[in-house]
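Action item from last week, closing it out:
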Amino acid sequence: MHTTKQPFSNVQLEILKTFSHQLSESELLELRQTLALFFAKRLVAQADKVWDEKQWTDHDVTKMLTTKMRKKSPKRG
């Protein structure tokens, strides 16, 4: 049995169905802001979870911000 990959995710399909009509520019801006806030809240919640799991303190974060933590890439030759 051959399955075809759907070009849209379930979220994209739901949004397409919900907004099958035109929005004004102000409504479109409000929707964008709402979506940005939705994803920002999720990101903050994930960051808070990691903070708690690792039991970080403000001192730890300050140290991370002032320490070069990136590793050098191996040289290709």
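Closing note: The chain has three helices and no strands.
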